[in-house]
Amino acid sequence: MNHELKKHWEHIYENKQPHEVSWTQDKPEVSLRLINEMNASKDAAIIDIGGGDSKLVDFLLEEGYTNISVLDISEAAINRAQKRLGEKASMVKWIVTDILDFQPEQQYDVWHDRAAFHFQTENKDIKTYLQLVKKWVYGNLIIGTFSTQGPLKCSGLEIKQYNEQSMKNLYNEYGFASLHCEFENHKTPSGNIQHFIFCTFKKK
User: Fold this and answer.
1) E strands, 28-67, where?
2) Which pTM value belongs to this model?
3) Which of 42, 69, 109, 188 could form a disulfide with 22 if both were Cys (CB 3.0 to 4.6 A apart)?
4) At the top level of CATH, which class does the domain 3-203 belong to?
């Protein structure tokens, strides 16, 4: 566990409200649409990587999905999401860990990651992430990162930007066929625009 990294994210979620951080979305429209386009069954195993207190889980539950996991390094973020969901929180598997330390207990039909993967900036960490995906995802991937027109940092941390070709090359090498890439201009709560790329993949 990277304790400094965990401390960083715990501090943010303990001291900032959703409207004070750049990644907040009232409704994660792109993520929801891409998940629905996978045509997964309602009991498909779906995991949201770096989900924090994202409302994606709220909407997935509302749409009838019953096998959802949310992973985040911050316990404070998970606690906030659980509190918001109330009784519905018991319908979700909550996992507090650094993604690089994650030891899954099941395989996943849909692996969704919006703005967690791009924090892996070292080659060894990117490789660890990709090996994890290769072993534990037997269905589809949805990866959203800052594009080459996006920010260079998020929450004071360095990130790695991607374009369509670099994303495809990386995941194709680890056994995933690319399905689709698109761009999103995410408007932050403060009114700034962040340029994202989302790519979807299917296990070969």
Assistant:
1) 46-49
2) 0.94
3) 188
4) alpha beta
